[in-house]
Amino acid sequence: MVVSSTCHFLVLLSLLVVLFLGVEGKIPEACQRYECPSYTVTETGNDYEIRSYDSPVWISTSPINDTSAIRATETGFHRLFLYVSGNNTFKKAIKMTSPVTSEVSNSGGSSSIIQVAALKASLAGTKWSSTPKSYIVGQYNAPFELYNRVNEIGFLYP
């Protein structure tokens, strides 16, 4: 494992099952420009799909405590961008991948809370209805891309 002061590589050895709302099997345009993790859709339902990801390698940063999810996401993206741009132990640039994900505490106040509520409603009465206390926001576009954005909301299940 390579560790720097703010970022580290995390190798997920087991498959992760992630629940996402919105894209429903459509491959985001960003995946034509950037590497995206491969997954298999194992189940689909009303406005959601269950995905099993193939042991991806993720890069992450330490938690950012901010009352604004937007500021926290921007701070995290900036840290990761510097890291992949060569500000790391090896001084080597790493190819950018997509999506950039953020784990958000279910504390309210986030602009994505409406989508989280919609996803929870879609899961009602399913084996996935017991949702974790936090959710994942996956952003496929660069922050400066304002049109045709693809964002996803998901829950991680072991």
TrEMBL record:
Domain of life: Eukaryota
UniProt keyword Signal present: yes
Species this chain originates from: Psophocarpus tetragonolobus
Pfam families (alphabetical): SOUL
Keywords per UniProt: Signal
Family: Belongs to the HEBP family.
InterPro entries tied to this protein: Reg_factor_effector_dom_sf, SOUL_heme-bd
Region forming the signal peptide: 1-25
Keyword Phosphoprotein part of the UniProt annotation: no
Entry protein name: Uncharacterized protein
Gene3D superfamilies in the record: Regulatory factor, effector binding domain
